[in-house]
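Hi all, posting the design record for the shared folder.

TITLE: backbone redesign
STEP: 1 of 1
STRUCTURE INPUT:
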């Protein structure tokens, strides 16, 4: 089962990623100024996952990716995949596990490893 992982960007805004059961990032959200906005959007996505649209693209370098749309609004962007089959497997994992995935909050940890 995958997980939603909340963290901070270098500009102190919040983001979350959806990771696969193998630990790879499937998609990354947009930025949020406040952490509770990030948490609310995760919960909204989990409730409304059936209405999500996945717009598939191919980059100029030949890699495949998707934009996740929720209620017609850009919600997140996937990582780049080497084949369209791998892209579809990423989408399938979101649909299968997204609504039951746990939320992990690493936004308060500045340093994971101590000196």
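Okay, here is what came back for every position:
SEQUENCE:
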């Amino acid at each position: 089962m995958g997980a939603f992982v909340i963290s901070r960007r270098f500009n102190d805004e919040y983001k979350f990623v959806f990771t696969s059961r193998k630990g790879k990032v499937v998609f990354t959200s947009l930025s949020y100024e406040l952490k509770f906005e990030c948490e609310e959007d995760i919960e909204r996505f989990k409730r409304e996952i059936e209405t999500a649209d996945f717009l598939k693209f191919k980059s100029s370098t030949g890699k495949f990716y998707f934009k996740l749309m929720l209620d017609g609004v850009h919600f997140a962007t996937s990582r780049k995949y080497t084949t369209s089959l791998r892209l579809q497997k990423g989408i399938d994992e979101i649909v299968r596990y997204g609504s039951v995935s746990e939320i992990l909050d690493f936004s308060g940890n500045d340093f994971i490893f101590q000196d």
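COMMENT: Helices lie at 35-47, 84-97.
Let me know if anyone wants the other runs.
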